Amino acid sequence: MGAQEYDSQLLESVSVRRRRMRDAFLFGAQRGRRSVDERLGKLVAGIVIAAVLCAGCVGWSFISERLMGQDPSGSNPSSTPSSAVTPR
Questions:
Q1: What parts of the sequence cross the membrane (predicted)?
Q2: Contact indicator for 52, 59 with CB cutoff of 8 Å
Q3: Confidence at residue 55, expressed as pLDDT on a 0 to 100 scale
Q4: CA distance linking residue 12 with residue 29, whole number of Å
């Protein structure tokens, strides 16, 4: 093992130890609970994002259906009055 590898391994182990010490200081016995809470929060956020995307798709479908149903000239053949006389 070269000096370079030893130094990088030492720095990484110090980094891991500092992170663990910081987490123990900040969260104490709640470390396991914190990970469950984070996962639950991510699940709720995912459900909310999925609901917003679904609502957006439904809205887009509704708007595009309404726009495609319109005649560009402004007269819709399906909405002609029933009293219109057809030429013979």
A1: 43-63
A2: no
A3: 97
A4: 25
The gap between the terminal CA atoms of the chain, to the nearest Å, is: 101
Q: What is the DSSP letter of 2?
A: -
Q: Could you give phi then psi for residue 2, rounded to 5 degrees?
A: -85, 170
**Residue listed under structure tokens 């402004």:** 74
Contact 56, 62 (CB under 8 A): no
pLDDT tens profile 45-56:
999 999 999 999
Task: Indicate whether 73 pLDDT > 70.
Answer: no
Provide the token pair at 16.
């891991």
Query: By three-state DSSP, how is residue 1 classified?
Result: coil
Contacts of 27 (CB under 8 A, 6+ apart): 34
